[in-house]
Design goal:
The chain is α+β, with helices and mostly antiparallel strands. The protein has one domain: Beta-grasp domain (Ubiquitin-like (UB roll)), CATH 3.10.20.30. It is built from two helices and seven strands, in the order βββααββββ. The strands form two sheets. A five-stranded mixed β-sheet has the order 2-1-7-4-5, with no helix packed on it. It has a two-stranded antiparallel ribbon with strand order 3-6. The longest helix has 11 residues. It is globular, with a radius of gyration of 15 Å.
Length: 98
């Protein structure tokens, strides 16, 4: 079964699990399976229209799904899916060190 790797902020929904196995299918199927198993997951990952939120990056075997087939990207039996929230913030001040 495919393995899904979850970031720390989502682990509160999984009882602390950092990775879970789901049935193969497409990325959309994987996200549905996660929400069925861990209610509330979809609200964290998807917009109201069902699209993956802009600040959520989903990778299948190291490739970002937006460069593949999006939510229709196939997820095979031995694939790895990583869900990674985008980092934000920082300072607009320039460093004193080059």
């Amino acid at each position: 079964m495919p393995t899904v790797y979850l970031p720390a902020p989502l682990r509160r929904l999984t009882g602390g699990a950092s990775r879970v196995e789901v049935p193969p299918g497409t990325v959309a199927d994987v996200l549905r399976a996660l929400d069925e198993r861990f209610p509330g997951m979809r609200a964290q990952l998807c917009d109201e229209d069902g699209s993956v939120r802009a600040f959520i990056n989903v990778f299948v075997n190291g490739s970002e799904i937006r460069t593949l087939q999006g939510p229709q990207t196939p997820v095979g039996e031995s694939d790895e899916v990583s869900i990674i929230p985008a980092m934000a913030g920082g300072s607009t001040r320039r460093s004193l060190c080059p």
